[in-house]
Write a structure and sequence with these properties.
0% strand; elongated; 4 helices; mainly alpha
Length: 122
C-alpha cells in the first residue's frame, strides 16, 4: 500500500477559512446582533493567520495577535472584547484541523508500515 501522491496539506487555506466563517459567524455564541461579517472577518483573519504564523499556545501569541488586529481591523466595529473570542475561534479551528491532518498522516504511515511488514513476512 503506497501513500497517496497528495497528502493532506497542513498549509493554511485562507479562502476556505473565510468561506467557513462567513457562513458560521451568526451561529457563534459571541455573535452580537447588528454586526455583519465585515465586522468579524478581520478578527477571524487574525486568528487563522496568527495560528499559521505563530502556532503553539494562543496565550503566548496574544500580544502579536493584538498588533495584527490593530493593523488590519479597518472599519470593523468590533470592540476588543468582541474581537477576542473571534480570534480564538479561528485559531482553535485551524489548530484542530492541523491535529486531524497529522493524525491522518500518522495512520497512513502505520498502514504502509504494516503492509510492508506483512509483505516481508510472506
Amino acid at each position: 500500500m503506497a501513500l497517496p501522491d497528495t497528502a493532506p496539506s497542513l498549509a493554511l487555506d485562507a479562502r476556505r477559512q473565510d468561506s467557513h466563517w462567513s457562513r458560521a459567524f451568526r451561529g457563534e455564541p459571541y455573535f452580537r446582533a447588528g454586526r455583519e461579517y465585515e465586522d468579524y472577518a478581520p478578527a477571524y483573519c487574525v486568528g487563522y493567520v496568527g495560528y499559521a504564523q505563530y502556532g503553539g499556545r494562543f496565550e503566548d501569541a496574544l500580544r502579536s495577535l493584538w498588533a495584527n488586529w490593530e493593523r488590519i481591523r479597518g472599519a470593523s466595529r468590533l470592540t476588543t472584547e468582541e474581537a477576542l473570542p473571534a480570534f480564538r475561534a479561528a485559531w482553535d479551528r485551524v489548530e484542530a484541523q492541523e491535529a486531524l491532518a497529522g493524525r491522518m498522516l500518522a495512520a497512513q504511515a502505520q498502514a504502509v508500515h504494516a503492509a510492508a511488514a506483512q509483505g516481508a513476512g510472506t
